[in-house]
Amino acid sequence: MNRLFFALCFSISIYSFTQNTATPRSVSAPTISKQTVPNTAKPWTFWWWMGSTVTEKDITWQLENFAKAGLGGVHIIPIYGVKGLEKEAIPYLSPQWMQMLTHTIREGKRLGLGVDMTTGTGWPFGGPNVTPDMAAKKWQYTNGKVESVLTKQAVKRAAPGGAGLVLDPFASEAVPKYVQRFDSAFATVKDLPRAMYNDSYEVYGANWTDDFPNEFKKRRGYDLQSQWAAFMDTAQALVRIDYHQTLAELLAENYAKKWTDWSRQKGFVTRYQAHGSPGNLLDLYALSDIPETESFGSSRFPIKGLRVDDQYEVDRYGTPNPLAMKFASSPAHLLGKKLVSSESTTWLANHFKVSLSQIKPQLDELFTAGINHIFYHGTTYSPKNADYPGWLFYASTNYGMNSHFWKHYPLLNRYVERCQTILQNSQPDNDLLVYFPIHDLWATQARAGGGIHLLEVHHVDKWLLKLPFGKVSEWLWNNGFAFDFISDDQLQHFQPEASGKYKTVLIPATTYLPETTLARLGELQKMGVRVIFMEHLPKQPTGFYRQKERNEAFQKMLQTWSGQNFPSLQDLESIKPQGLEILLTSANLRQETWAKEGLKYIRKVQNGKVLYFIANQDQRFSEGWITLATSAKKVALYQPLTDKTTLLPVKIEGGKTQVYLTLRSGESCFLRLDANVGEGSAPAVQNLADVKNVKNTAPPLPVSPQAIPLQGTWKLEFLEGKPYLPKPVTLTQLGSWASLSDSAGYFSGTARYSLTFDLPKGVTSAQKITLDLGDVREVADVTLNGKKIGTAWSLPFRLDIPANTLKTKQNRLLIEVTNLSANYMRLRDAQQPEWKKFQEINVVDIQYKPFNAAKWSPMPSGLLSTVTLEASKN
Fold it and tell me: What pTM does this model have?
């Protein structure tokens, strides 16, 4: 780890905060001219180039459509090709490939789209220029001697011109030699992508490098082979810790840092996925300009009405976890990095089955975990003349132009842009630092191949949640304490006065602790930082070398900490866990007690004023008074979904600020405390926090509305879609149109429901009335009496009806519903399965079996439940 760089990052703001550009600028990063800085508030997308079989004409056509849909940029990833088009494939980094890249970047500038690229094809780094001396290695113990042998791992999903061995992540000369190929390719290129990208680690079985014995002895003070028996003994931890520590240092210095330094020297910023590696993720993420996490699968939120694909195998692939995401956002918060990105919604559901209503909760989870630069996973380059469904990547989700939600895609993108405009232009407001005791993890026996701990985002239960660190972090997350993680190295450079926010460091129960960390905690306590040890003090210092002598000094240092209160994990799991709550609040840590009701949040500061992003990802809360941990005289609620702002009822109880919040299951909002309404908004987002939409005084408390089911005869007409339009029908009871007939069961497209109704007695058009559409599959465009009311695409499917839109008699309601493409693909895959024509893995389902939609049952489509008017009594 470059400690000078780390120290500078704490004292120097490394990013420019240009309105709505949000591009990171490190002290050693390249300067990017203002006119070429892309829009990062808008979401970006992974863009797979299949075989790099691309043309300038189709690149332009797709980029123009991306810009119209509201994207901010693309990330080019060359992968395997299309069967039958081998001759059209363009070799990676060839002059023709660089011409396609240059055309993309220039067109991106014209359209306001940024362009990133992977430093390689597929994943992980590797290729034809990786010779055996540069390739990934593992140790082999033969005849009493440790030998270095090749893992023989090849690049996964490699594109033409990118196949070859995987790079050794621990060797000192591997990265410098590897990037020479890129030096040559970019030697005469003037138009550069914004960023170079490094995908998640995925170097399997690699646990050694040729110079490892020398590096180990230099760093740890003894010969590893002399203690090989202790290293192999599962009951002996100290040598195993030293081994992992050495791997982690080599990975950071020889791989992450050298790749980052090279990227910056060439004029690129870096996006880095450190997860999956055997290093300390906090230190690795810190090296990049834009740390990037990953959201793979469905989080299984208990949101009312949220559908989860039951074919997804949780035991096999795990689920997204906000604590894993915080490993990327925490170093960004510590170092002042403006952007934290995410590879988002990978395998959220099977192909052709992902809805916008499933996507939004996953993005909300990312926002609450500190992520503010969304990359969709993703979009496949597909020629304009390709037959439906076009070219597809083997994994869902499909954000391309053939996606069933393409025409409503701009609605999702506007929501993301509004959120990220605020999140990127505000600073974290966390009180607490939680120390990550990685040495306790290294002391345990690893289950991964190669006998090393791979800190992946998929199965956090294997490493994060099983530690006391994970348990206490989960408790903090669920009980409303705002925190970031910190590593040993980061503690050494943490300056409380410079940060101005973190008041306490919490040390989870740990056995092994570096002496330098214990000494630094003592220094921080003298600076006024509260240090809390959970359960007990550390038992001994890390490392095998001179352990007895060092342990004696360590125990003397511990004596200064004895006598304090050590809250235990049993306190957290008991009926009355107030012990730790009292301890933390007595340390002046703010607790948002309403988080216990399933409301997830991130607290930030903008222009000196506190704001919250809150997502209701449970069913325990709907509305009520919540107590804010920060005092305020007025609180404005901003709804990024509708772009409307209102003032909330506020009262002071016991000296604390309470607001009356209505936030139904699945909804999200921002709260601004004592800020001028519209403060911090960006002109690029239409009407963000529009002052004209804000009441000058807080409204009276809402009263339970009157629910009025809409009854009568519905007419259902099929407007557009595949394979053909079923006949119109009339319905007295709503339900899935897929059950009406065989043709309706195969239909994918848009159908219109129409109903004429009268207002019941006692209800007037002047009242506040909401249309509750119930269970919608999947998106509903609503028109009432000739006026467009809005589009319901996320949970809950509700739309406010503007005042005086309803009439006493003969109201005409039109609801156009668009369903998934899954039902049509049942027929398409049975009749014409030849669309699956891709090399290597081709197309697989969510269980990684050969894809076959013909065996699916029809997916429910249309309006599935009663449509209701809710009339407020105010």
Answer: 0.93
